[in-house]
Structure formats: C-alpha cells, structure tokens
Amino acid sequence: MAQLTSPWSSPFESWHSRALLNPFPSPYSFTPSQDRLILTMILNAQTEPEGLSLALFSLPDSTETIAVDARGRVLLVSEKDSQGLLALAQTALALPKTGRFWNGWSVKQNVSCFPVHRLFVSTSASETPGSDGEAFHQISVAGYSKEKRVLSDPVGKYTELPDALWELFGLVLEARADAGSRWDNQRDEMVLGKVREALEGVITI
Question: DSSP secondary-structure letter at 143?
Fold first, then answer.
C-alpha cells in the first residue's frame, strides 16, 4: 500500500491573517524599492500572466518587514513570521538546481494546464551568492497544491516536492487567498503599480 503524504502544516501558518491585523499605518506613503526587497512571488497563469502574489520588503530600523499582498494591502509582518519565511527560503535555495526553465519543479496533476508560481529571493537577504552576479535567485513550482506533492518528473533523488518548498509556497500563497481578479475592483492598483515598478529587472522571462 502506498504511503500517504502527511497533511500540509507549518508553524508559521496564518502569518497573513496575523499581518492583516497589523496594517501599515500610511500605505500610500510607503515607497517600495528593489534594494529592500527580500522576496517576491509572481503567478503565471492564463488569466493572469504576471500577477503579484506577495512582495516582502525590509523596513529601516525595525525587526518587522512590510508585505504587499495580491490585493495591494500594505501590512506589517512580525519578526517571527518574516524570519520563518526567510529561513524556509534559504533552505529551498540549498536544493539542487533543476536545470529546467525558471529552475522549475512540477507537481503531477490530472490536468495539462496549471499555473506556475515563481519565487524570487534576494541574494543579499538569503546570504547566498547569485550566479553571474545575479541579485535574485529564482525557484518555480508548476501545479502547486497543499494536497499533492508527487513530481511529474524527478529532480535528482527527489520524487516529491521537498519539504521546504512545499511549506514555503503554501505560506506565501496565503497572500493570494482572497486576491479576486483583475476586474473586480478589489485591488489597490496604486500600491500594486509602485511594487511592479520596484520589480522591474527582477522578473525575467
């Protein structure tokens, strides 16, 4: 009998719900900058080719960080939660390169078309040197799910999405849970526009 995958869990689960209780006091005064960007995740899907899921920025003279979620809300993230996200990102960066487009991992799904989530992590924040002087590392997962982790194609010894990636992507995607769509007028496009400007040059095709 095949061994069942344990349910997804994380000690940092609901970090986004906690951050929603601590909004940045003046969101329109916040100016995102690439030099303070810790990590960001972008959704690539047919309905949203480059949709922001999360951007996490360091905050001068503070142990807290600033998160901008998929709806453009500007939130303060506790030191414990932001350090947990970064620690998982550092573990994920230690995984072998896949040698595939966008350094991609692909979860086996029953459909042929599924979204790809692309994670970019600052080399300075992760303390992991980038190749060829790159400022950001990239890891992507196609077909991510908290219910499935068997890979469509193994990566080295890995036949399932590694623990750190499975946990990290599940956490980051909390920031997209109530994203809605580009057409429902629920997103703060002023804030999201400033973040997109800060991400110029980070997101590479």
Answer: S
User: Whole-angstrom Cα distance, residue 125 to residue 123?
Assistant: 6
The span from the CA of 168 to the CA of 186, in Å, is 26
Name the region of 103 (left: φ>0; alpha: ψ -120 to 50; beta: rest). Answer: left
- Cα–Cα distances (Å) from 114 to 46, 53, 84, in that order, read 9, 16, 28
From CA 41, how far away is CA 64, in angstroms rounded?
19
> What tens digit of pLDDT does each residue of 128-187 get?
666 656 889 999 999 999 999 999 999 999 999 999 999 999 999 999 999 877 778 889
89-111 pLDDT, tens digit each: 999 999 999 999 999 999 998 87
- The length of the chain is 205
Q: What DSSP string describes 39-69?
A: EEEEEE-SS-TTEEEEEEEE-TT-S-EEEEE
Q: What angle do CA 186, 191, 192 make, to 5 degrees?
A: 75
User: For 16, phi and psi rounded to 5 degrees?
Assistant: -70, -40
Q: Rounded distance, CA 10 to CA 124, Å?
A: 25
Q: CB atoms < 10 A from the CB of 11, how many?
A: 9
Amino acid type, 71:
R
